[in-house]
Write a structure and sequence with these properties.
The protein has five helices and no strands. It is an all-alpha fold. Helix 2 packs across helix 5. The N terminus is likely disordered.
Length: 102
């Protein structure tokens, strides 16, 4: 029991930030192979994506569909392949994190 209290106390003292865990989730899901937070790689930076969709209430659902089905033409000629391996729950977390970038 003392060990459990000690672990819980340590977790509260050193919380993992939401952005860090979501960045790790994006990395694990393969997103950061073509994207970066603040620089264009193959695809746009997440800062640029967030700016483009800022204020659009349907942005999460639009991006969800874009990731699932892939596509091209919005950010250039390089096609983004569809990503169907990421769970819906994880993809929603990643998209929320992307849209929160500044």
């Amino acid at each position: 029991m003392k060990l459990l209290v000690l672990i819980a106390s340590a977790m509260l003292a050193f919380p993992v930030s939401a952005s860090q865990s979501n960045e790790e989730l994006a990395e694990k899901s393969g997103c950061l192979g073509c994207h970066s937070i603040d620089e264009k790689v193959v695809g746009p930076s997440y800062v640029d994506v967030a700016a483009k969709y800022k204020g659009q209430k349907d942005a999460p659902s639009v991006l969800f569909q874009k990731v699932r089905t892939g596509g091209s033409g919005v950010w250039g000629t390089v096609a983004m392949p569809p990503n169907k391996k990421v769970s819906d729950k994880d993809l929603k977390k990643i998209i929320a994190w992307i849209l929160a970038q500044k």
